[in-house]
Automatic annotation (TrEMBL):
This protein's name: ABC transporter permease
Gene Ontology CC: plasma membrane
InterPro entries named in the record: BP-dependent_transpt_permease (IPR050366), MetI-like (IPR000515), MetI-like_sf (IPR035906), OppC_N (IPR025966)
Subcellular location: Cell membrane
Amino acid sequence: MSAPTSTVTAVSPEGPAVEAQPAKRRRLRFVANGKAATGLITLGFFCLIAIIGPWIAPYDPSARSSDLIQPPSSEHWFGTTHLGQDIFSQMLVGTRGVMFVGLLAGLVATALSILIGVSSGFLGGAADEGLSALSNVFLVIPALPLIIIVASTIPGAGDLMVALVIGFTSWAWGARVLRAQTLSLRRRDYVEAARATGESTWRIITAEIMPNLTAIIASSFVGTVIFAIMSEITLAFIGISTISEWNWGTILFWAQSQQALAQGAWWWFVPAGLAIAILGTALSLINFGIDEFVSPRLRSSGHTRLKTKDGHSVRMRVGFTPVLGTKAVPPTPVVRKKVDAA
């Protein structure tokens, strides 16, 4: 004789009994996040400008004219410099160098952090100790002063050299985080099962470990891109990198050296400053979106929808234990007996 079964339904805070809707996997959940979508759209806009900027620039960014320190107009959208150079053309042309350095440095640093961090955490033993020691050495190396020394020592150091130096000195933090996560994953059941079936070490790393580190790798990449872009602009602003190659830092360098603020030429430095702020905000929004994608507790919605029997949808707060119950049972009447006093 089979055991009796009972149907359990969830009761929402509003009262009606609801049945939990089957969970559906949302493939584009990250893109659907408002912060991530805004950041990706903004970053895509800057990447597009980096590609087509030199082609659509109305003037040669280094060409001089008789319009000296002119405010924005229909002829010069962002005004001109002390030499009559068009600032709008300098912004369009300079976007390529900023994006090139940021993305290349982020790719180099992320690749090194994956190779060293994941290998260190999974292999263990002498390999772990050696790679961890290498990471510790690069952790204490001051990246920006080293970049300044290399850029000032090597004659004609361009964007490629600066990007490589930033990438080769910025991977240690990401490697440490990936190593810690790999140490927590290497003894999981699915990893042990793959090892028991005879899978090779690199097959286990790439197919079992790496998919669980995707969000951390993406967050590390975004953080490195932000650092690389700010380092590139800093080098150009203080006059270390080649000032003949236009980027946003070069525009700020000439604006500061010619005392644009004292002359009231706000149009000389405001566009570059706003572009830096907008790009940094876009990358930060992408990073926030990655954090919310990884941790459901950080998602802005914090709610789930349950479908009632009559077809209505009820919104419930995630994180609270639902009230469980069966069909309503009438309360048992209480029989009270009167006791006569003796």
